[in-house]
Give the backbone structure.
Amino acid sequence: MAPTIKAVTPPATLGEAPFWEARHNCLLYVDIFEFEIHRYFPETGRHQVAKVEEGDSGASVSFVLPSADDPEVLFIGHGRNLAAVKWSPSDPDESTIRAVRLASVDQGKTTRFNDGKCDPQGRIWAGMMSSDGNFETKQSSLYRFSVDLVPTRMVGNVMLSNGLTWSADLKTFYYIDTGELRVDAFDYDDPSGDIKNDD
């Protein structure tokens, strides 16, 4: 029997960064250009939306990751800021929330965060893209944030930072630069978070 595909939420302007949140049994994702975080609860069909107020480095909300310590805290890419918001499933289905800046990167550049993920050690990896459409300058980078939120530039000269993930054995880190139409594989050391590519 062929799988059934159906829309379960209203259309997004630019939906990105889906993340399954097991604690609340829901799907988290963002609508980048609407500055929104979404929760979808498949068991009930409930759809919860929070609009994030504009920050000092832009209004885009590019990824969302739950905190391991507080079930109501989410980490987001907010313009050039790594930020935190407090948003609970018990909040109204539509609300406006304020982001608290935790760290900033790329000061003076016309970039914003794009995709972001958390590694098994709790470090956030997040990459940048041009915010003015000028990708040829390769001014973007991929950053790794330590658990105390100190950023380290891991990959530079990026056109459009996008998908990232780790192999099941945690020995390989995969990274996409969409502008280059390429997936790169790096040797990965999980305890340190170091990557290397000898090619």
